[in-house]
Amino acid sequence: MSNIKIAIVYFSKYGHTRLQAEAVRDGAASFKGSDVLLLDAAEAVRRIDELDAYDAIVFGSATYMGNMAAGMKSFLEATVTKWGSGKWKNKIAGGFTNSSNFSGDKLNTLQGMMIAAMQLGMIWVGVGDIVGSNEPGAESTVDGPGPDSLNRNSASIGPMASSFGVRTPDAPPAGDLKTAWNYGCRIAEITARFHP
Q1: Over 90: is that where the pLDDT of 121 sits?
Q2: What is the pTM of this model?
Q3: For residue range 72-101, what is the model confidence (pLDDT) as tens digits?
């Protein structure tokens, strides 16, 4: 079996989503036989035809005003050239996001990326980690899962990180980045199952 190829395309204005993207990349790269490419959204638009050769494409965007950032939206709009030709049909897809609060309507950002992937005929992969699986009992407290907790934002569609206006590299916190790392590994594992 040949290596699987995974591309991670992200938009990050302040660096938080980039740290998430790097964690997804590192998780995917930990899977034996994976080649991983990390591109910011503007570069990905310029190199969009190269992505045809990838088995999985993961989207990442900061959430601004309850929606994906304009930079990611521009990239997804550029994928219309892949829609009509079916070039990305049956590729594995996924997505992740960061905002300054626990909610920030991040779900809307993930849904937007997922719908774009569905339009392209891709196969979406969710998180897989249950809330606070590394902090047993945290959900039975008023404080809930802490910053070191896996999937503390209780996401299913894709990893969510919360940075609360804290500058990088202190945010996103360790648990959010570990959730992103696990997600990258999951993307690679599932891509390998579908890869000939």
Answers
A1: yes
A2: 0.93
A3: 999 999 999 999 899 999 999 999 999 988
At residue 173, does pLDDT exceed 70?
A: yes
Give Cα 52 to chain centroid, integer Å.
19
Give the residue among 61, 68, 67 at the shortest CA–CA distance from 44: 61
* Helix (H), strand (E), coil (C) string for the chain: CCCEEEEEEEECCCCHHHHHHHHHHHHHHCCCCEEEEEEEHHHHHHCHHHHHHCCEEEEEEEEECCEECHHHHHHHHHCHHHHCCCCCCCCEEEEEEEECCCCCCHHHHHHHHHHHHHHCCCEECCCCCCCCCCCCCHHHCCCCCCCCCCCCCCCCCCCEEECCCCCCCCCCCHHHHHHHHHHHHHHHHHHHHHCC
Token pair for residue 12? Answer: 């990050």
Question: Which residue type is seen at 187?
Answer: I
| N-term to C-term CA, the chain | 7
Could you tell me what percent of the chain has a pLDDT over 70? 98
Kindly report the length of the chain: 196
Question: Which tokens go with 11?
Answer: 């938009």
Distance CA 71, CA 4 (A): 27
